[in-house]
């Protein structure tokens, strides 16, 4: 009896997806729908969820309404609140993974440490903590806000108390009665502060720059409304449509007419005034830049928590740590037992960049040393069949990132399903196409509030260039990513001969 052919040493798949947040799971669903079932989703953690698995801090919730902050193909009539909390969003993503048949494709504890394009075989060679794969295409959905950033402060290593980042909350550490410092006043800190202030002994908030904060129109979605959305699906479609339309209309003010935001700024000023009576604190909390320049935050309980008797707002950054004393940049000293860093993420220097190497043997990080660029936020010259989900200039200041992710998935699926017809093994953008896209994005960026509003923000890279936010409506981006334009691409031909071992396709993924 002939013996079975030996299993390939390195399993091969058509597509390898990195990450299992909204981006990676969305990619999985769309691949299956396109009839591509030969793929793996490589995830460094031991569960799906990305942002919504990692961020479990007290008060963690979305700040775009849930009925818009969800997949169009997986509506959820049961969102419990207009801005649902992390446990519900995480459960939603677990359900998406199950309902859409993604479980057989998931590989956990599989951190991608290297992905290298091999010109000879026209394939990606991928090394992970759980083994190696080869793939014809690589979809990188590693998340814009996935790798925490803690500032390198002198003396931090010797701090005798507890230290953690907002996205790595230590639930075993009891904050009750402790002197706690929260460093940073961004989107995470503003949710954390009011939720821990009542239980801690003393709360010290280090605020380098104040944020503009608007009231949060959050409410419980009553059972009758949820039943209505279940019984009459068009009601939830209508709800989503209204949420979407309102945000699309706001974009012009952010992008072309920042002066229109003056009225919004007045609401934010009124919001400070009604919650904070102490004039000195009010001055500390009032930004000196135009609203919208940094991400607008929403909260009803942040200001009252800052005005509470056990809270001190230090209007300065953290400079150094001396034992259990934190020294601010204004020279003041503060004794604490624990430090919570709400200091954001590696956004413009995404760590996966140094792990992905293209056709010329250069890493994405090297390619991007002067700033991130990609054609239509998704593809990069010299990196054949690499597709970035939430790549450069695809972030949003005011609407749901899922809209952008789904647009990119349209584009990626179009590229993958047209390769055969184009007679190519792979594609990557021409330098001209990538350059002219980037120049157009940066030209449109010039009039935006992010550039003209008088602030610096995490939207900008080390050179001060905004390489993160999309200067337009989500509708504009949807149209720009509907299909690939072959004129914008260089095609990589099929190699003359593919080594037999690499040719054998692993039958490990359920088709
Ligand atoms: C606290 C918080 C609140 C937010 N609220 C909103 C909101 O209200 N509205 C909105 O539009 N956006 C919001 N965002 C932005 C949010 O990140 C995106 O909306 C979305 O969740 C991103 O999905 P993603 O799949 O691209 O990335 P992520 O959810 O970050 O998933 C990336 C995944 O890739 C994995 N990964 C990374 N590197 C590797 C590697 N080398 N190998 C293997 N796996 C890897 C990570 O473990 C993670 O599971 C919020 C972000 C945060 C942090």
From TrEMBL:
<dbReference type="InterPro" id="IPR051209">
    <property type="entry name" value="FAD-bind_Monooxygenase_sf"/>
</dbReference>
<dbReference type="InterPro" id="IPR020946">
    <property type="entry name" value="Flavin_mOase-like"/>
</dbReference>
<protein>
    <submittedName>
        <fullName>NAD(P)/FAD-dependent oxidoreductase</fullName>
    </submittedName>
</protein>
<keyword id="KW-0274">FAD</keyword>
<keyword id="KW-0285">Flavoprotein</keyword>
<keyword id="KW-0560">Oxidoreductase</keyword>
<dbReference type="Pfam" id="PF00743">
    <property type="entry name" value="FMO-like"/>
</dbReference>
<comment type="similarity">
    <text>Belongs to the FAD-binding monooxygenase family.</text>
</comment>
<dbReference type="InterPro" id="IPR036188">
    <property type="entry name" value="FAD/NAD-bd_sf"/>
</dbReference>
């Amino acid at each position: 009896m002939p013996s079975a052919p030996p299993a390939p040493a390195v399993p091969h798949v058509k597509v390898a997806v990195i990450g299992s947040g909204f981006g990676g799971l969305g990619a999985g669903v769309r691949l299956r729908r396109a009839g591509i079932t030969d793929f793996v989703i490589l995830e460094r953690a031991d569960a799906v969820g990305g942002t919504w698995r990692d961020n479990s801090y007290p008060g963690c919730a979305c700040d775009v309404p849930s009925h818009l902050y969800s997949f169009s193909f997986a509506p959820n009539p049961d969102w419990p609140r207009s801005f649902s909390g992390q446990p519900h969003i995480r459960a939603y993503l677990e359900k998406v993974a199950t309902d859409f048949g993604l479980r057989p494709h998931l590989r956990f504890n599989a951190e991608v440490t290297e992905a290298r394009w091999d010109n000879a075989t026209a394939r990606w060679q991928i090394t992970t903590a759980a083994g190696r794969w080869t793939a014809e295409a690589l979809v990188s959905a590693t998340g814009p806000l996935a790798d925490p950033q803690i500032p390198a402060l002198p003396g931090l290593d010797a701090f005798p108390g507890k230290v953690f980042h907002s996205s790595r909350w230590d639930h075993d550490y009891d904050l009750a009665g402790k002197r706690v410092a929260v460093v940073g006043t961004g989107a995470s800190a503003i949710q954390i502060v009011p939720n821990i202030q009542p239980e801690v002994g003393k709360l010290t908030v280090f605020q380098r720059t104040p944020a503009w904060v608007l009231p949060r129109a959050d409410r419980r979605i009553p059972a009758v409304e949820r039943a209505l959305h279940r019984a009459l699906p068009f009601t939830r479609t209508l709800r989503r449509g209204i949420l979407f339309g309102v945000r699309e209309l706001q974009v012009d003010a952010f992008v072309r007419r920042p002066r229109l935001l003056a009225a919004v700024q007045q609401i934010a000023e009124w919001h400070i005034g009604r919650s904070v009576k102490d004039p000195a604190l009010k001055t500390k909390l009032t930004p000196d830049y135009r609203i919208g320049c940094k991400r607008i935050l929403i909260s009803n309980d942040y200001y009252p928590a800052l005005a509470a008797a056990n809270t001190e707002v230090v209007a300065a950054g953290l400079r150094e740590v001396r034992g259990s004393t934190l020294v601010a940049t204004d020279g003041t000293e503060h004794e604490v037992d624990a430090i919570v860093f709400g200091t954001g993420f590696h956004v413009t220097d995404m760590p996966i960049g140094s792990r992905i190497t293209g056709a010329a043997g250069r890493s994405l990080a090297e390619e991007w040393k002067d700033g991130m660029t990609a054609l239509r936020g998704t593809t990069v010259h010299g990196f054949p069949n690499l597709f970035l989900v939430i790549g450069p200039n695809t972030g949003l200041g005011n609407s749901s990132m899922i809209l952008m992710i789904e647009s990119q998935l349209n584009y990626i699926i179009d590229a993958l399903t047209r390769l055969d017809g184009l007679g190519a093994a792979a594609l990557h953008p021409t330098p001209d196409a990538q350059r002219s896209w980037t120049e157009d994005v940066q030209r449109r960026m010039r009039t935006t509030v992010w550039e003209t509003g008088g602030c610096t923000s995490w939207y900008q890279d080390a050179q001060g260039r905004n390489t993160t936010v999309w200067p337009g409506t989500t509708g504009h981006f949807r149209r720009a990513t509907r299909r690939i334009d072959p004129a914008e691409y260089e095609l990589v031909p099929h190699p003359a001969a593919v080594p037999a071992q690499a040719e054998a396709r692993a039958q490990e993924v359920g088709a």
